[in-house]
# Entry
Amino acid sequence: MTHAPAAEPTTFQLDVRRRARAAADWLVRSIEACDGGGSSAYYSRFYRPLTGWAPPYPETTGYIIPTLIDYAAYAGEPRYAEIALQQADWVMSLQFEDGALPGGFVVKGRRATPSIFNTGQMILGLVAAADHSGKSQYLDSASRAARWLAGEVDPDAGTWTRHAYKGGFSPAYYTRVCWPMLEVWERTREESIRTAAARVLDTIASWQQPNGAITNWAFGADDPAFTHTIAYTLRGFWESGRLLNAEPYLTAAHRGADAMRRSLERRGRLAGAYDRELEGRWWYTCLTGNCQMALVWMRCADSLNDVRYVSAAFKALGFVLERQRVSGGAAGTRGAIAGSSPIWGRYLTLRHPNWATKFLLDALMEADARVTRIAAGVS
# Structure
């Protein structure tokens, strides 16, 4: 059987691939800035006048691992996956005896105290390393971390309150802790992990309001929510629903994503943050959240078979691409994106955080794959 030759890449795809390369190489530079042990949390000559690079950040290094593994396959360059596995080894070196992983920076080899959210994000990297390498130590480490998370859930309230970013506050974006736990469960079938994750998801689902917003999806109970934490919450619901084949969690993700889509369509872009009534803070945009929402919308497009979400995703991503410098300028910013636009916006003011560029790279790879499928006549 003969196959039609692959379509030539479009101008859009060629630009996406150039931008993806620049983003991937910036992530590698953020690791090199830390001598190969973790990715620098951000680049900022304002906050770090000597070198520009902050110390390594275990949380986001953890979820940069699957991005670099994916990019290695996307670009056909195994070296990116090799770098990713080195980061997984570094993450494992930080694990506490009880399975927890640390929050905060690592400064002069010293790790911070355990963190619920950060542990979940590092599990994503350990699972990806296990899947890619076939080495059991990565999944063993991820399983220990997931068991620690399961043991920290208050079974009556269905929340985590210890080891929080803000003491005693259990945010809605902890759905993004449940998702990594369920990735472990899918591979190990440890029922206690699934039960604990589902208990938290049920609690957070009960917080969704008629307008699609979810109480507590900001960093603090009374704060407007950056699109960053909104997207964290929705992605956690969507991925958990996928893994559990659970319609209520998918529905929660779809409702919140549709509220954000309608906001974008009304104003042509997303606000930087939203209050409980979904009134936006329009004077700036959270670029990180734009990339994350693009990823959420592309998933909703697939699960709902609704092209409106593809349109929203490409609009949000296009806004970001206008603000990514791919040539010239300082090596510390070339290929990266800032936390906010304008750069003095409220989210990660005057910084280029590593997670912003990570989510940009994820979104670029998915956008390219989607255009390729459309060109091939595959929805």
